[in-house]
Amino acid sequence: MADVHSKETRSFNMSRIKGKNTKPELLVRKFLHANGFRYRLHDKKLPGKPDIVLPRYKTVINVNGCFWHGHEGCRYFVLPKTRTDWWRQKIHRNKELDDQNLSKLTQEGWKVITIFECELKPKTKEETLNNLIESIKLENTGN
């Protein structure tokens, strides 16, 4: 199946997709800051440059897009009808990198929390964010 957009239009659309400072990421950061957590962003010294790093709690938080990270069973993850094989490989590689980075971070003693964008939709946002705080604090009391 041919792409419905011209090459220039498709290129423009793809150039507008952000990797950092996305709306879900900003939502989590704003919530954490309002609740007294201080963090670093996209620490290049850590595997995968996690979105949010809480050094005090030895915790990193990845805020993943459902499409880009192949969130299984999610209504927001649907493979495109054009170039399906290419997209399947791309998303598979993203998932492999996620797994590798998770493994490296846990080996270095970091707790890794992953939040998918669908968990930050209005119906589930409050529960997700409250669970996030509980998860961070729970880990800290265990040390």
Describe the structure.
Belongs to the vsr family. Its EC number is 3.1.-.-. Pfam families: Vsr (PF03852). This is Very short patch repair endonuclease. InterPro entries: DNA_mismatch_endonuc_vsr, Restrct_endonuc-II-like. The protein has a single domain, classed as VSR Endonuclease (Endonuclease, Chain A, 3-Layer(aba) Sandwich). The mean pLDDT is 89. The chain has a four-stranded mixed sheet with strand order 1-2-3-4, with helices on both faces. The chain has helices at 7-15, 23-34, 84-107, 125-141, and strands at 40-41, 52-54, 59-64, 111-116. Helices cover 43% and strands 12% of the residues. The protein is an alpha+beta fold and 143 residues long. The protein starts with 6 loop residues before the first helix and ends with a helix. The protein is globular and about 50 Å long.
Named at the architecture level, the CATH assignment is 3-Layer(aba) Sandwich
Uncertain parts: none
Q: Tell me the count of domains.
A: 1
Average pLDDT, to the nearest integer?
89
- List the secondary-structure elements in sequence, H or E: HHEEEHEH
Number of strands: 4
- Structural class of the helices, strands and pairings? alpha+beta
Shape: globular
Q: Widest sheet: strand order?
A: 1-2-3-4
Largest sheet: 4 strands, mixed
Q: What is the fourth-level CATH superfamily?
A: VSR Endonuclease
CATH class designation: Alpha Beta
The helicity comes to: 40-55%
Number of continuous helical runs: 4
CATH fold description: Endonuclease, Chain A
Distance from N terminus to C terminus (CA atoms, Å) equals 55 Å
